[in-house]
C-alpha cells in the first residue's frame, strides 16, 4: 500500500501495529535503510584503529534512547548532519529493554526510520549497553542465566546490534585472595560470550565488544584490576579470535546521578586521572580503543571536553536526555501528573525511607517509559518540536565537546557497511501489505 512509503506511518505501525504488521514494517524499514547505505554497521575497525593510535582525540558518544526513540534519534541525526558527526552510537541496555518496552527489533527500527526521515548519509551504529549477567540469577542457576543472555544476544545481533557491552563485572569475587582470582569469573564468562558472538555474527560483520571491570557506582577501578582482567581474558580467549575493543571502568560516577532532596543533582568528583591512566594502559599494552565512561550525562557541561583529552574512547549518556524531556516547560502537565501517580503505586517498593517526592520521581520515572509509550509518542507535534529542538542543541554541544565533529572521513575510511541478508517475514494476510515492498 502507498502509505508504507511514508516513514512516519511505517514506524508508527512498526511500534504500535498488530504483531504481523510490526514484523513487516520493521523488515521494510531495515530493507529501505540498507538500500540507502544506512544499514546497521560495526565500529570495530575504527576502535581497532584507535587502539593502534591511528585515530585519537575523539570520544564516541553512546546515547541511550529510553523513550520517544524515533523523535530523539531524529534530533540526534539532525545535529549529526549539522556537524558532520558520523562516529555516534545509539544504545539501549538490557534492563531498559524491559521497562521501556523496546525489544531489539523495535529499537533498531526507530533509529533506522529516524535516519531515513532525516536523510542521514552514514552507517548506523547500534549498541546493546550493559548486557549484564545477573549475579543472583547466575549463582542460583548459571545455565539458565547464561541461556537468557545468549538468547538476548542472538536476538539483538539478528536485529542489527553490531556492538555489545558484555557486563559480567557483577561476578567479580572479592572473597578471593588475588585480584586475578577475583576477576576470573568476570573475564572467563566474557570469553565464553565472546566465542558465542563470533559463532553467530553475520558473515562479514565483526560485532564490536566491550568488557567491564568495575560495577558502575562502586569503588573506582585500578590498574591491577585492568591488567588482571585483560591478561586473563587474552590467555583464555587464545589466538585468532577478535576480542573486546574497549573497557568500562568506574571513576566516581553513578548511573543517573545522585538527586538531592530538592530535586537537584549532587556534584560528583570524577577521577579523570584514573580514567586517563587506564585508557593509556588499555591502548598501549592491550590494543584497546581506551576506556568507557558510564553515568556521565548529568555531569557539569564544562567537563565534557576533558574526555577526548584524557583518551576516553566512549561515553554513555542517558539520564540528562530524559530530564530534558520530562522537565521541559512544554511537557504536558496532565501527562506528567498521570505518570507520577502511576509511579506512586507501581514503583512504591523502590522508595527509600526519608526520600522526598523529587528524589523518588527523579529516580523512578525511567520505569514509566514503557507504560506510557503511546502517550509520549503522541504528544502534540508543536510541543514535541519544542522539546526536540532543545535536545538537538544538546546533541550538537556534546558532539562538539567530544570532538566527533567532522568524523565522516574517518568513518568512511575504517567502516565498510555490509549488506546483510534480511529475511522477509512469513505472515498471513500478506495482501494487506500489497505494493508495500
Q: What name goes with the CATH superfamily?
A: Aldolase class I
Radius of gyration, taken over Cα atoms and rounded to an integer in Å: 21 Å
What would the principal axes of the Cα set say about the shape?
globular
Q: In total, how many domains does the architecture comprise?
A: 1
Give a quick account of the main beta sheet: strands, pairing sense, barrel closure.
8 strands, parallel, barrel
CATH architecture: Alpha-Beta Barrel
Instruction: State the end-to-end CA separation.
Output: 9 Å
Fraction in beta strands: 5-15%
Highest CATH level, the class: Alpha Beta
Task: Spell the H/E element sequence.
Answer: HHEHEHEHHEHHEHEHEHEHEHHHHHH
Overall pLDDT metric: 92
Instruction: Report helical residue fraction.
Output: 40-55%
What does this entry look like structurally?
This protein is α/β, with parallel strands linked by helices. Strands 2-3-4-5-6-7-8-9 form an eight-stranded parallel β-barrel, surrounded by six helices. It starts with 6 loop residues before the first helix and ends in a 23-residue tail after the last helix. It is built from 18 helices and nine strands. Helix 4 crosses helix 6 and helix 10 packs parallel to helix 11. The protein has one domain (2-331, 379-433): TIM Barrel, CATH 3.20.20. It is 49% helix and 10% strand.
